[in-house]
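Worked example (supplementary).
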Amino acid sequence: MTVRTILTEPNKILRQISKPVQTVGKEEKKLMDDMLDTMYAANGIGLAAIQIGIPKRIIVMDISKEEHKKEPRFFVNPVIKNRDNLKSTYEEGCLSVPDQFAEIDRPKKCEVEYLDYNGEKRLLKADGLLATCIQHEMDHLEGILFIDYLSKLKKSIIIKKLSKNKSNRIVV
Ligand code: GNR
Ligand code: NI
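After joint prediction of all chains, the assembly is encoded as:
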């Protein structure tokens, strides 16, 4: 179990399209363990492998609120099977877009087919925060960030801020 570095925008790696996983083997399980550690350490509710620089179609999530009742979820090669016409708005943040938040509209419900930690095929019917989060994470697999849904002006202001913060950060 290792906490890895989360890449932040602007970084071209975050724009890569992630590749399907052939088998859920030892290497993939180790990656999922590390991703979970990294996500918890950063107080996030989701993380896609590309956020730690690995272009594989793997996502970890935990939307449980209580510290002592962890509910980790693992998604390998997720595919959206169905999405709601009804939209819901959620104030989104992203560990790769630190300290920036914006209201984003997405389908309220969706059904996702995926492989779990043990490589078994599953179907999840998601609603509310779960649906929002899985769609946010699946965007990462396509190199999409939530700021891509904002106006050009809002997006450029955010990217400018992030670039500035990056150049000011003291790296030891
Ligand atoms: O921790 C996170 N919180 C969050 C809040 C609203 C909508 C989506 C998210 S996902 C984010 C973690 C992250 O960046 N995952 O890619
Ligand atoms: Ni994100």
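Two points are worth noting when inspecting this output. The chain has a mean pLDDT of 96. The first strand starts at residue 46 and ends at 48.
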